[in-house]
Amino acid sequence: MTAERPGGTSPVYGIYGPVNTDAATLSDLLSGGAVIRQIPVSVLLALESGSSALQDDALDHVAAAGEGLPLTTATCLDDYWNTSLQILNDDIAYRPLAASRCIAVDKATTYDRLTADGVPVPDYFYGSLSPQLIDNAITAYGPRPVLKPATGTSSLGVYRYRDDLSPADNLAYYRILLRMGNVPATSNIIAMRYAGGAEGLEIGAEITMGAGRVISLVVHEKLTSTQVHPFVDRVMVSPPVHPKIIDALPDLPGHAERIATALGVVHGVLHAELRLDGGVWQALDIAVRPGGGLIAHSVQAITGIDPRVCHILAGLGRPVSDQARNDAAAAYNATCIACCYTPPARRAQVTFAKQAQVAADFRGATNVLGWHINAAEVADALFEPDAGLSVGVGAPTPHAALTRLRALVEPHGYTAA
Q: What is the pTM of this model?
């Protein structure tokens, strides 16, 4: 496969020049004179190093990237690089967002604060990884508890205990998963009851806060997710379609406000993952940022407001403005976003010519929110050709969005199932 562009995966961006505080979309920001530049990973590493010489050089690089415009703010669409962000946003306005982001990457503190503010979370405890911790987890939560690092975000190091293995084998396997995820061996581990039963009805909630209240809540139902490590959300639809999720939606705004209160978010965006357990929403993970991938595109399609802009404004201590909310126009009532792959039996047929046809068809299609192809054509006895596709579509109803997505990808040999 083609290597990643050096520094190209950085989730941190500098916003230079004037920021239109009535902006609802990235286009609004750019048309108002702002310039957005990705800050390379090498610069972030220097900022995080603690070396004043390295930090001075890094700040010079960041300043030069504005091409004469001053750095107004820096934003991150991931959960890390918080030291860099505090250096780049050295003002009082950024401090509340900085504090909330630091809480969110400490899962143990997050769960403690959620519990204190009345947000249901699955039963849990945490401590050093050991045979005793695993024995206590099985005793407390049954034969298949969940283990996850107390620090970090996403699904790195999340493991559901296997009852077909001995405790010693589970411990050995889990240590390897932590090592592969670059999780420090000294990290505390959270042991947690598995919530949701066999159905495992799970959602992603995209929460926008302004002045301490929920001003937007977009819910994606996770239709297909892998059940074992590594956990990957394959297909998400908004609004949800499962009757039990629909019945429980009226409880979500209250949960969303309490989640924001627990993390101290007054203005800004949260991405919350929750599972329905006995008719009650249980919070699993919270991030103080927009959801990744095409989630922001989906939210903008449904609300007319890009949550990434809300996140940028929060770094300046501002909510999305009333004018932006009043002027925003939704493009669709429903969306579906998916990660699609070439089935194993068809991998040998992957060629760049066929991917070119995919691109041509997608460019000519209506209702496509965005798409990304990662493909490799090889003729090798060891490496097989492969292709992956991320895509989002809009439609009048969630069922229509699902149908539209499958009609778009399946003729090209991709599957979203």
A: 0.93
